[in-house]
Structures are given as C-alpha cells and as structure tokens.
Amino acid sequence: MSGAPVPAALAARLDPLAADAKAFREEGMDVTTELCERLLAEGVPGLHFYTFNRSKATKEIVVERLGLVPGRTAQPVG
C-alpha cells in the first residue's frame, strides 16, 4: 500500500500462498514472529506494532507465540 518494494525473500515466502488466505496469514505470522524473536534476541527493549484497528494477529503473536505481556517492555507472561 505504501509503494515500498517487498523484499525478495518475503515475497518468495508469501507469493505462492496468495490464493490461500489461511495459509498466507499463517506464513505472515510466522515471518513476523521470526523477526520479533530476532529483534528480542539482539536486545531491543520492546516491540511496537501498528495494527490499524486489526489487532487479532498481533495479539496472537505477542501473547501466544512470544509469550509477552502486551503493553510491557519485553516481559514474559507468567
């Protein structure tokens, strides 16, 4: 939507799934989770997401996949 080019590695993962909304969403969440894990492993103090009022996938990534508490700086759940 912004006109910025999509990195080739990301396009290679997502383009084959364009006709399957469920698989596309899952792969997109996998890519995002991997990026978040890498950033946290490299020491970023927190993550910020722009959800545009569509936060379900973000909540799934943050809470279920990363085990973080939303609104807190890299605090594991539990």
SSE inventory with pairings:
Elements: H1 8-14, H2 21-41, H3 56-65
| Rg | 14 Å
Helix content: 40-55%
Low-confidence stretches: none
Tell me, briefly, the overall form: globular
- Mean pLDDT, to the nearest integer, reads 89
**How can the largest sheet be summarized?**
none
Index terms:
single chain; 78 residues; mainly alpha; 49% helix; globular
Model description:
- There is one protein chain.
- This protein is mostly helical.
- The chain has one domain.
- The chain has helices spanning 8-14, 21-41, 56-65.
- It starts with 7 loop residues before the first helix and ends in a 13-residue tail after the last helix.
Task: Give a short overview.
The chain has 78 residues and is mostly helical. Helix content is 49%, strand content 0%.
